[in-house]
Amino acid sequence: MKKRIIVFGAILIFASCKKDWTCSCSINGADAGSFIIADETKKKAKDECDEGDTSISLFGAAIVSECEIN
């Protein structure tokens, strides 16, 4: 039981660590670049990166931007 508490505590500590994340984006599957999200947890960095996800229609053509954390 004691070992489980120690392992769980270690996982919890590492899961909430803040670090720099790279957000890579593509437009219609083609690389559109990347940017750094500094000193954030993975969840907050993912949320910020996902703000770049958009889909619009321009003159009948769909333009889809997708961003992912690396």
What does this entry show, briefly?
The protein is α+β, with helices and mostly antiparallel strands and 70 residues long. The chain has one domain (2-69).
DSSP E strands, number: 4
Helix content: 25-40%
Low-confidence sequence ranges: none
Please state how the strands of the largest beta sheet are arranged side by side. Answer: 2-1-4-3
State which percent range the strand residues make up: over 45%
Helix count from the secondary structure assignment:
2
Output the structural class. alpha+beta
Query: Largest sheet at a glance?
Result: 4 strands, antiparallel
> Based on CA inertia axes, which overall geometry fits?
elongated
Q: Could you state the order of secondary-structure elements as H and E?
A: HEEHEE
Mean pLDDT: 87
Please tell me how large the radius of gyration is: 17 Å
Termini distance? 35 Å
Domain count: the total is: 1
Describe this structure in words.
The model has no long low-confidence stretch (mean pLDDT 87). The radius of gyration is 17 Å and the shape is elongated. Strand 1 (19-27) and strand 2 (30-40) form a beta hairpin. It is built from 2 helices and 4 strands; from the N terminus they run H-E-E-H-E-E. It has helices at 2-15, 42-50, and strands at residues 19-27, 30-40, 54-58, 61-69. It has one domain. The longest helix has 14 residues, at 2-15. By secondary structure, the protein is an alpha+beta fold.
